[in-house]
């Protein structure tokens, strides 16, 4: 796997944790470098997250498949994805989650991304 894909996926995982969300794959060693699967916070639905982030920021995040449809959402880091793209996606996700009522420190995900990018 491309080192850039790994860097972006691990930075995204750090951001997701900082926002207070749960990753489907817990251990970074087992995580995909192509797509990151995320559980929504309690009380906020995957359809609401997907609809809001698309409407407000023109960003599409994938739904879960089969039995996981509407139970998880997924953010991809495969292909030509830059650090700017990951920062934009996480900032947009933070704004979406705040709008939908998730309680966390705004900017914590973006800060975790920037820290990871600067250290790796």
The helix-and-strand class reads alpha+beta
**Gap from first CA to last CA:** 16 Å
The number of distinct helices, counting runs of at least 4 residues, comes to 4
Mean pLDDT comes to 95
The residue fraction in helices comes out at: 40-55%
Q: Work out the radius of gyration.
A: 13 Å
Strand order of the largest sheet: 1-2-4-3
Percent range for β-strand residues: 5-15%
Structural shape: globular
Give the strand tally: 4
Tell me about the biggest sheet? 4 strands, antiparallel
Task: Name the helix and strand elements from N-terminus to C-terminus, one letter apiece.
Answer: HEEHEEHH
| Low-pLDDT residue spans | none
List the helices and strands and how they pair.
Layout: H1 3-19, E1 22-23, E2 35-39, H2 46-57, E3 62-63, E4 73-76, H3 83-99, H4 108-119
Antiparallel strand pairs: 1-2, 2-4, 3-4
What features would you describe in this structure?
The chain has about 120 residues and is of the alpha+beta class. The protein contains four helices and four strands. The protein has helices at about 5-20, 45-55, 85-100, 110-120, and strands at about 20-25, 35-40, 60-65, 75. A four-stranded antiparallel beta sheet has the order 1-2-4-3. Helix 1 (about 5-20) packs antiparallel against helix 4 (about 110-120) and helix 3 packs antiparallel against helix 4 (about 110-120). It is globular, with a radius of gyration of 13 Å. The model has no long low-confidence stretch (mean pLDDT about 95).
